[in-house]
Amino acid sequence: MDILTLFVIIPVLTIVALVFTKGLKQARLVSMVGSIIQLGMAINLVFAYFKERAINKEIMVFTKDYVWFEQFNIHYTIGVDGISVALLLLTAIIVLAGVFISWKIADLPKEFFISLLVLASGVYGFFISLDLFTMFVFYEIAVIPMYLLIGIWGSGPKEYSAMKLTLMLMGASAVLLVGVLGIYFNSNADGGTLTFNILEIAQVNIPFEAQKLFFPLTFVGFAVLGALFPFHTWSPDGHASAPTAVSMLHAGVLMKLGGYGIFRIAMFLLPAGAMHWSWFFIILAAIGVVYGAFGAIRQTDLKYINAYASVSHLGLVLFALLTLNKIAWNGAILQSLSHGLLTALFFALIGMIYGRTHTRDISKLGGMMKILPFIGAIYVITGLAYLGLPGFSGFVAEMNIFVGAFQNPDKFQRILTVLVVSSIVITAVYILRLVGKIMMGPLVTNDCENLPKATWYEKTGILLLLIPIIGMGVAPLWLSDMLLESIQPFIQGVL
């Protein structure tokens, strides 16, 4: 069994084991063991990647190819570069943290963890796939469990939120499928055979008219999942109604499929289309960054605040990709990793606060630092990291994006960059407002004085996310160098 396929096999084996469990205790134990194995595999892959990269200079390493549907030239083709490896590690960290944060889930625990692992297996498969069709299949496997996870285990208007999320993502998938098929049917433009293989298609000169037509379809199909304005509205409702671990995976992992798909497929395979349409989509991305930040200021529900903040920060990823600049692209990948960790940590903390106070309304919260010192201290640290304080992952990512974007001599792009940079100030406003109100402010009610402290499993989940956030901020060069090396072949095709 090859090293990459195990990322799909292990979650499936964990799911099979969960089927035979009885009760919460067995379900969470099996889920924890399976998730720890996945994290161990991801860490091992990082070291194996560096070792392999020293002797293998191909775009992708650990590649394997198995015929799936010979009639349509569909293969199970897999491989990774530094970007895939980093995102696989991010996924493994957040899945394990989500299991710890869901340690006490009481309603259908076995089914909950099974749905969570189905989502994870789809994400893993997506990140290792080098065949468009196989990648699309894993994409759908990752998206579909969200309906069940929100509709069954969610809160508030969960049926509405689950249906809205599903309809919008399924609509985006339909648009994406048209784009994928358009690429496939133009993959023999140089006289070869039709293929879904990404590396083979990249060598083909797809006609400019086809690129102009299919780039926006492919871009929008992925960008809806990446919360592109104005198609972002499913995200805040989905976050607000989802259980804590699902919000963590939703924002921390699932939404990363959008940016990764744009980078790996839309930009790489349709570079002329990317250059032709970049001016239009970069405007939408810039609007999304500022709109999401202002939207967060207007909210009073902790989850909605974090959801709109996610729209803003993921807008930065799309903006950076559309600048068509190597440094900005490096920032986009770093921002995907940083946002995944930070937003998952925020949702975990919000879930811990809600589980004790039974409210997410900031007007009904206050003095949390005194009542829950561990949760309060981590919340303050996370807030400072989220607004881009040096020493944390957010600063490294955003500096790369802004420096790279401003290198373009085009005045129009520089003006948009200045507009996007202003979102940092807006972010500081709602983060410092939150910290001042719910952490440092006076107690709203005396009923909160004896709330239970953070448990060992909650602390474990929190530290799993916090340590890499600090690690990225303090020692980012090894990761940045790994990403830049992997970005080089892709940026050459665009410029």
What does this entry look like structurally?
The chain has 495 residues and is mainly alpha-helical. It has one domain. The protein contains 22 helices and 2 strands. The chain has helices spanning 6-19, 23-53, 82-101, 109-128, 132-143, 145-153, 158-185, 198-201, 208-223, 234-241, 244-254, 256-269, 271-298, 302-322, 326-357, 368-371, 373-386, 393-406, 411-421, 423-439, 456-474, 477-494, and strands spanning 61-69, 74-80. It has a two-stranded antiparallel ribbon. A hairpin with a 4-residue loop joins strand 1 (61-69) and strand 2. It is globular, with a radius of gyration of 22 Å. The two termini are 38 Å apart. The model has no long low-confidence stretch (mean pLDDT 84).
Helix/strand layout:
Elements: H1 6-19, H2 23-53, E1 61-69, E2 74-80, H3 82-101, H4 109-128, H5 132-143, H6 145-153, H7 158-185, H8 198-201, H9 208-223, H10 234-241, H11 244-254, H12 256-269, H13 271-298, H14 302-322, H15 326-357, H16 368-371, H17 373-386, H18 393-406, H19 411-421, H20 423-439, H21 456-474, H22 477-494
Antiparallel strand pairs: 1-2
Helix pairs in contact: 1-2, 1-4, 2-3, 2-4, 3-4, 3-11, 3-15, 3-21, 4-5, 4-6, 4-11, 5-7, 6-7, 7-9, 7-10, 9-12, 9-13, 10-14, 11-15, 12-14, 12-22, 13-14, 13-19, 13-20, 14-15, 15-17, 15-18, 15-21, 15-22, 17-20, 18-21
